[in-house]
Amino acid sequence: MTPDHNDLWFLPLGGTGEIGMNLNLYGHDGRWLMVDCGVTFPRPGRIAADGSVHHPGEPPVQMADPAFIADRRDQLAGLVITHAHEDHIGAVPYLWPLLQCPVYTSRFTAEILRRKLAEFDLLHRVPIHVVDVGNRRMIGPFEVEWLALTHSIPDPNALMIRTGIGNIFHSGDWKLDDRPLVGHGYSKKTFTDLADEGVDAMVCDSTNATVPGHSVSEAALHHGLLKTVAAAKGRVVVTCFGSNIARLHTLAAIARETGRYMGLLGRSLINMSGAAKSAGLWDAADQLINPSHIGYLPRSEVLAVATGSQGEPRTALRRLASGNHPDFELEAGDTVIFSARAIPGNEEAIGALISSLQTLGVAVITAEDAELPIHASGHPAQEELALMYRWVRPSVAIPVHGEAEHMKTQGTIAKANGVPRTLVGRNGDLFMIRPVPGIRRQITETGRLGWDKQALVRVE
To answer: 137 forms bridges with which residues in the sheet?
Structure first.
C-alpha cells in the first residue's frame, strides 16, 4: 500500500486510542514521513507486598510495532521528533535499526536523543539534523515547518506539514502557557497565519479534552510550592517528571528562598538537567549540590527532587520509601510532595508508594490535597482546544493522543468551533485527507513490541 501523488494520508501505529507510545505516519507521493517514536508503560499489573508492580511476562519497556513502515523503509523519508518526552522519543534507540532514516528535531531534544543513542552504541550511526523554530525542511515530498508551542518540557514543537496537494497541522503535545518560564513561548499569529494559508487537517493532542477551563501556567505554581516547602520542618523531597525543567527552575528558586540546598536524585533528572545545560536552558543561578552530601546536612536544609512520581520500581523515591537509597534515609517528620498527577494505569502503584511513605511517618502531600496549585498539566484543556480550532480553522479535525472518550470529546469541541468534519479512529486506521476525506478501518495490524534480554519481542 503506497500513496500516489494525489494522496495525502495519516496512519497512526501508536498513540491514537491510547496515551503513550506515539508513532505517526504521513503518506504522499510514494513516501512516508514518521512523526515521533515513543515508549509506554506496561499494562496494569499486580502490586507486590513491597509496593512494586509486577507484569508477568511483560517487558518493562514497550513501544508500537513499526512492522508496516519497517517493511517499507525504502519509502521512509525521515523521522521528526516533536519533543523529548519518553512517549515521543523513547523508542528511537530500539527501533532505529529497523528504520535507518535521518532524524530531525530541536536542540534540546537532540541532546536527550544523543544520550539515549550512546547507550546503544548508535550515536555515530544515526544522522541527527538539528532545527530551530521557524525552520522549514524538505523531507522527501514533505515541507516541514517547526512551530513554537508550550508544553511541560523545553522546546516542544508543532509542525506544519506542506505538500503540493494539501497541508496538515500536527500539534504534538501542547498547552497555551503565557509564562512557560523556560524555552520558547508561542504566538497566536503563528496559528492564525496558518488559517489564512489553509489547513486541510489538524491532528491534535486529546489528553485533557475532558477537562474544562484552561490549563494552569508553570509560573502559577511558585506560591503553592513555596508555601508547602516553607511549612515543612524536616527534609523535603519533591517528586515530579524529570523532563520538566521549568519545575526544577521553580524548585531551585524556592530552595534559595527557604534556605535549603537542592539535589537531584535519579538518573533521568540528572540527564535532563545536563541536557538543559548543554542546550543553554539552565539558569546559572540554579545551583545543585551533589546528592551524596544530602545525608550530612541538617534535615531542615534539604530539598531533594526525586524520580518516581508514577510509583515506578527502582526509582529514587521508591528506594527512599523502601529505606535502601544510598544517599540518605527518610525519617518521621520529613515531607514528600507529589508535584505530578497519575498517568492512567499507575494509580495503584502510586497508592502503594504513598502507603509505604506514610508507614515511615513521612507526611505526603499530593496535587489533589494541596490548597494551592503545585502541579500543572502540559496538555490543553477545553478552552485551549477551542481557541486553537478557532485560530487554525482546519477543514478536518483528527483527534489523537488520547483514549476513546478524550478523542470523542475533542471531536465535539472541534465541531462546536466551526470545523466542518471530524475523523475519529484508532491505531491502524488510514485517515485519507486527500483527495477525499475519510477513514479506511484497520488497514494494517498494530501492536506492541517489548525490549527483553537485549532483543525486541512481540507483546501479546
So the answer is: 144
The rounded radius of gyration (Å) of the Cα atoms in the chain is 22
What CA–CA distance (Å, rounded) separates 202 from 433?
10
Find the largest Cα–Cα distance for the chain.
69
235 in Cβ contact with 330 (< 8 Å): yes
Q: Which domains does the chain have, with CATH numbers?
A: 8-212+377-459 (3.60.15.10), 218-365 (3.40.50.10710)
Q: Which of 242, 208, 282 is nearest to 90 (CA)?
A: 242
The span from the CA of 244 to the CA of 251, in Å, is 11
Instruction: Choose among 442, 437, 426: nearest CA to 396.
Output: 437
Residues written for the chain: 460
Instruction: Report how far residue 217's alpha carbon sits from residue 176's, in angstroms, rounded to the nearest whole number.
Output: 8
Determine how β-strand 8-14 pairs with β-strand 23-28: antiparallel
pLDDT tens sequence for the chain (460 residues)? 899 999 999 999 999 999 889 999 999 999 999 999 999 977 655 445 445 554 566 888 999 999 999 999 999 999 999 999 999 999 999 999 999 999 999 999 999 999 999 999 999 999 999 999 999 999 999 999 999 999 999 999 999 999 999 999 999 999 999 999 998 999 999 999 999 999 999 999 999 999 999 999 999 999 999 999 999 999 999 999 989 999 999 999 999 999 999 999 999 999 999 999 999 999 888 999 999 999 999 999 999 999 999 998 889 999 999 999 999 999 999 999 999 998 877 889 999 999 999 999 999 999 999 999 999 999 999 999 999 999 999 999 999 999 999 999 999 999 999 999 999 999 999 999 999 999 999 999 999 999 988 899 999 7
> Which burial class, exposed, middle or buried, applies to 178 when counting CB atoms under 10 A from its CB (0-12, 13-18, 19+)?
exposed
Q: Buried b / exposed e across 412-449, counting CB within 10 Å, b at 16+?
A: ebbeebebeebbbbbbbbbbbbbeebebeeeebebebb
Instruction: Give the span between the Cα atoms of 323 and 386, in whole angstroms.
Output: 47
> Does the predicted model carry a pTM greater than 0.85?
yes
The CA distances from residue 425 to 53, 87, 122, 223, 276, in Å, are 31, 20, 35, 41, 36
* DSSP calls for 209-240: TTS-S-PPPGGGGHHHHHHHHHH--S-EEEE-
